[in-house]
Amino acid sequence: MANEPLSLAETRKVATLSRLALTDAQLEEHRHHLGAILNHVRQLQALDLAGVEPMTSPVQSVNRLAEDVPGPTLSNEQLMAMAPHGAAEPPFIRVPKVIGGAESS
Amino acid sequence: MTDAHPTTIADTRSALLDRKVSAVDITRASLAAIDRLNPSLNAATQVFHDAALQRAAQLDARIADRRAAPLPLLGATIALKDNICLDSAYGDARTTCASRTLEHYRSPFTASAVQRLIDAGAIIVAKTNLDEFAMGSSTEHSIFGPTRNPFDRTRVCGGSSGGSACAVAAGMAAAALGSDTGGSIRQPAGWCNLFALKPTYGRVSRYGLVAYASSLDQIGPFARCVADTALLTSAICGHDPADSTSAGLPSPDLTSDLDRPIDKLVLGVPRQARSAANHPAVTAALDAAIKTFSHLGAVVIDIDLPHAEHGIAAYYIIATAEASSNLARFDGIRYGHRAELAPSDDLFDLYARSRAEGLGPEVQRRIMLGTHVLSSGYYDAYYNTALKARRLIKRDFDDAFAGTARAASRPSHACHAVLMPTSPGPAFALGERSSDPMSMYLEDIYTVGVNLAGLPAITIPAGFHRDGASNLPIGLQLIGPALAEGELTRIARMFELATSHSSIRPALA
Prior knowledge:
Radius of gyration of chain A: 22 Å
Strand content of chain B: 5-15%
Distance between the termini of chain B: 12 Å
Largest sheet of chain B: 11 strands, mixed
Largest sheet of chain A: 2 strands, antiparallel
CATH architecture of the domain at 8-45 in chain A: Orthogonal Bundle
Low-confidence stretches of chain A: none
CATH topology of the domain at 8-45 in chain A: Histone, subunit A
Structural class of chain A: mainly alpha
Order of helices and strands of chain B: HHEHEHEEEHEHEEHEHEHHHHEHHEEH
Shape of chain B: globular
Largest interface: A-B, 58 and 71 residues
Number of strands of chain B: 13
CATH superfamily of the domain at 9-263 and 454-503 in chain B: Amidase signature (AS) domain
Number of strands of chain A: 2
Helix content of chain B: 25-40%
Oligomer: heterodimer
């Protein structure tokens, strides 16, 4: 459908890829707004882009090598202090089981 | 005294060195203005009463020690957009990005640009409100609620750096830092009658700026006059080994040459700047500015930016694609909000529920859009196409600066700068656009091209729209070639001297 670039099933897939657990009502609202945005950006299809190189950054990327010397760094205590309540069991981070779930099937 | 900083940063510094005032006095006045005005404006999200006064006392001690070299930003009170890291050792500062996920985040370090200001003698007085993760054009998408426009409290002050603009316009601080990914410095500055500069990409270190779209983000200053803008820009620019995209260039001195007008100034006004969507007051301000510059001896020519109309489309693909990657780090593990889980929940549930609870709807929407345009089967149609359009948008500007416009029917002048509106209209009412994201995105039509091309731009106060009892500021921007911050501030200075718009302050109770 011309005015519906994104179906609810596609919206749900994008939410899964984005790691967002959303309700059906939230998905429907996002689908509506994302559709309007995707309709707008379709105008780019009309451009003649033959021979145009993609521009990923305004600056020419150059590989700058750092001197191989130790510099200041954050301590394990500082990093662990940032972990959310219930996650930090210094020096470890607690996570739920890794096997199973929405993406493993 | 209703304004904590009636003078420029340079005047404050002179008064301090002459011992006419102390840094503690200056800081107290700033904090008093915040305490008085912030309840109704909601510009500041954290105020550093004790830390700022301690810092001021240190500076006073330094001034008393005549062996110490005088610092360039001595006593400048600064408000920081709250997506810029400040070490939590300073007043137990949080770096929240106005997001639930970072509501309690304490940064273990200070952003390089902020450290440069502190080293130059500045005093950080507050953190300011923003659209969550800098994603928005109104400072309404914030866990702290909206910031109000000091010129009309029923209106937004723009965004996403709305709190920084409001704080400076209301006299809560001498100046502020914001970040500009698609106009987030220039648009709120325009709506709050301020000068503000988005530097050339790579000029200012992004180390310590929470990343939204890494190939577009730049930190820049807000100020009430061009001299302060030049002073702050000079202070924050410069190479930083901690940012791999930082230009390997020394800090420029934009202040010493500031009052020297540009000889044989040529300004280009794009045909696209006269969009039918413009508010009449914006077009009127543009015409008045053209007249002013012509009286100053400038040659003002019509130019064409034929791909500018595709800016919004290219921007919202590229920015959200980068955002979807940058914001993947908010996963409930290393930092940020972590959802309460049931025993049967697994790692995927931890990620997806923490993110759904911690990130607001506009941020979710941009992550989803970016994920979609990068996903298998859509990458070429959206992302790669947008990157090619980006190159064409940059070429349009290159042609204007080189005088080689392809579509020109006659030989064209090389422009020192492009002059165009900052926004198509004045500030809109609170809530007016928040239910329709696309209409909000279209507010950025004049600003996004600069970020896509990586160019510097300065917004200048250029007039007002009288609406009932309100006087709503209109901003225009001057866009220059890469690294032309010096020329841009000199052109802005010519305009500032020839007009009185920037001297008008909001009437604050």
